[in-house]
Amino acid sequence: MDYFKNIRILALEQATVVPYLTYRLAQDGMEVIRIEHPVLCDPNRKIGSDVLGEELMNSYYLCINAGKKAVTLNLAEEEGRALLRSLVSKSDVFVTNQLPRNYTKLGIDYDTLKEARPDLVWVGVTGFGPENNEAAYDPILQARSGLMEMTGEPGETPQTIGVPLPDMGTSEHAYGLIMKALLARQLSGRGERIDLSMFQSSVSWLTVPIALTASFGERVTRRGNSHAFFCPVHVYRTRDGFIYVAMGNDRQWKAFASLEPFRALDKPEYELNNGRLQDAENLHRAIESVTAEHPTAELIDLLNGIRVPVSEIKEIPDVIQDPLVEKSLLTSVDPRTSRRLVLSPPPHMTPFLDNSGRELSFPPRHGEHNGEVYGGLLGLSGAEMGEMKERGVF
To answer: Is the pTM of this model over 0.85?
Structure first.
């Protein structure tokens, strides 16, 4: 069942978009080797709290780098570029989020690397495509792609999404493209070049807004917690918290309005969804005047009893304790300190994670696997590696 254990990923990665991609690939059991400059490491290593009491292993970095190996390599040096080509010759996929202007200078362009491995799957993740060198940070992409215009309360300041969707959404798109390319290579024997724009990835999520705007001239903008087409869909205050109620049809509304606490809302003008949408603001206030008098648990039991979708608005500690989440959490134990990381669950449980007891190797230190990779994989002697290290190659 370990279909991917012999697939090797070589990643010149930093920040989030490619590290999260390779984190997902590591969860399939692929061997991931992340490459960093010997001095200018991944800046995310320095972000967050110093939870381990050591440099370059801060908390933000730890979240998405378990299950990988790490080497250092100076691609400004010809010896470094030669070592990269040797690594590529033994790898299946090369992926980077370097700016395109650096491709040729660093010797990581597709034409150069495919000479080392003709069937290489090469992936370049950029902000706005391979012809554009504009820097692309997640909130900038959220702003430019329209995601911020769709997030927040109507009439108020646009907001960023609570998770970095341009980063992580692009990672998921890249994950699918790599899997498709590996299948195509298995069938045809040929590799391919994949250029993926974070901007295009982000805009692709705007299915309804773009279709309605471009086709029918409708104005689509942020609506807070309400839905543009269904009502009531909203957050309501309870006696001890908040719930989200989402009704998708008139049958659910009829059952809801038949409940004792809400019977005053059983009005002819609310029988159909369009009628409820037209008076949504007043309806939301009326529903909350009832929910505010009842405990969250009581309302959830009441609505679950009539099959109306409802959920408590949970904080992150509560999410972690959810039985559906708790059984899928990943772990990673530091062999040096025995410090245990608890990591977010994968979107689906892979055979590799099942077989490993949902445990990944600890996020690698800067250059931790230089000896294993350059000595073991490439066969360099200790003396050769020592000389290269002295010359700043890695």
So the answer is: yes
